[in-house]
Amino acid sequence: MADPQDEFVTFFKAMADANRLQIIGLLAREPMSVEQLASRLEISASTASHHLSKLSQVGLVSARPKSYYNIYQFEAGALHKMVRRLHEDEILALAPPDAISEDERILRNFLEPDGRISKIPVGRKKKIVVLNHILQSFERGRRYTEKELNAIIRRFHEDTASIRRDMIGFRMMARERGIYWRTDENSG
3-class DSSP state for residue 182? Predict the structure, then answer.
């Protein structure tokens, strides 16, 4: 049994060509021979045959003999079948089980194997992901002195001042009279 992922790739590769899409469009209107298609597309008959072969392999076109020629026609059923498979989320089931989220990918790029931050991201989105990672080390509902806060941040990076400032700036933590706390302390 063929791998469903390979089937999707082969099917969409067959359509990933401007000439092939034009062939499908022309054949959707009326059946044609290789020579007619070649003439309409202003390509050689051998090039048209090559494209028809690719489309035929995935069932998008079929041929029937007529005199000395093969007449090709578009097989809409193949396209409808693939759309149905996509609509039924079959393609989603093909995602590898170890697929990682975008946040995990960002963390992999900025964390050392020991969990320390290799560098503080410049971009807002990436910085928020890294800061949220650090934030998980702070307990909800607990108040921290600046010294305690810095000791925890230092486990991740030496620049405690920048990280502390960013956590306040992004409203992940609040500060009053030298005491810090998570702003999401009442959430799950």
Answer: strand
Q: Return the pLDDT at 96.
A: 60
Model confidence over 79-113: pLDDT tens digits?
888 877 776 655 555 556 566 688 888 888 888 88
Q: Which residues contact 33 (CB under 8 A, 6 or more apart)?
A: 66, 69, 70, 71, 72
- Render 27-67 in DSSP notation, one character per residue: HHHS-EEHHHHHHHHT--HHHHHHHHHHHHHTTSEEEEEET
CB contact at 8 A, 70 and 33: yes
Distance (Å, whole) CA 168 – CA 148 = 16
Structural domain boundaries of the chain?
Answer: 4-94, 102-182
DSSP state at residue 138? S
Name the class of domain 4-94: mainly alpha
Strands of the sheet containing 32-33, edge to edge, are 32-33, 69-74, 61-66
pLDDT tens-digit readout, 28-63: 999 999 999 999 999 999 999 999 999 999 999 999
Residue 1 has pLDDT above 70, yes or no: no
Its pTM stands at: 0.48
